[in-house]
């Protein structure tokens, strides 16, 4: 059991070391995907440029702020208060990258 925990810790440390900055994709996959892949509750879908266009007009700072602090049906940090602000910002950047 102890060994498993140590292994997990080590592998997450290794991941942190290789990703020089916060890993937006990993954060998205763990904290944002449930809503932003399906559009649950009206969430804009990752990579769908037309769904993000209007929101981007508010400016990235506003989008970061809304992701970190919440906005209407969007829970603060996707409900994962353990995430750092930088991790949430990286996830926003990842979400805005066009997938097609
Ligand atoms: C429980 C579902 C849910 C989760 C989990 C979630 N979101 Fe959202 N998100 C929403 C919904 C719904 C909206 C649309 C809110 C609206 O416009 O009323 C939204 C909107 C947004 C917006 C646009 C805000 C704006 O000003 O237009 C951003 C950016 C965003 N989410 C980022 C994230 C990030 C980053 C994560 C993960 C850390 C995340 N969301 C996790 C439901 C979720």
TrEMBL record:
Give the signal peptide, or none: 1-22
- The keyword Endoplasmic reticulum appears for this protein: no
Q: Name the species this protein comes from.
A: Vreelandella subglaciescola
Q: Which UniProt keywords apply?
A: Electron transport, Heme, Iron, Metal-binding, Signal, Transport
Against Gene3D superfamilies, the record matches this protein to:
Cytochrome c-like domain
For this protein, the record's InterPro entries field holds: Cyt_c-like_dom, Cyt_c-like_dom_sf, Cyt_CIE
Q: What is the lineage of its organism?
A: Bacteria, Pseudomonadati, Pseudomonadota, Gammaproteobacteria, Oceanospirillales
Q: PANTHER family of this UniProt entry?
A: CYTOCHROME C5 (PTHR40942:SF4), PTHR40942
One molecular function GO term is:
iron ion binding
Q: Where is the Cytochrome c domain?
A: 19-99
Record protein name field: Cytochrome C oxidase, cbb3-type, subunit III
């Amino acid at each position: 059991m102890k060994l498993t925990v140590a292994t997990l810790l080590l592998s997450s440390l290794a991941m942190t070391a290789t990703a020089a900055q916060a890993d937006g994709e990993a954060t998205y996959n763990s904290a944002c995907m449930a809503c932003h892949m399906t559009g649950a509750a009206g969430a804009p879908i990752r990579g769908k440029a037309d769904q993000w266009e209007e929101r981007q007009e508010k400016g990235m700072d506003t989008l970061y702020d809304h992701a970190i602090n919440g906005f209407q049906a969007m829970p603060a940090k996707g409900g994962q208060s353990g995430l750092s602000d930088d991790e949430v910002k990286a996830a926003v950047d990842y979400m805005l990258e066009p997938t097609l």
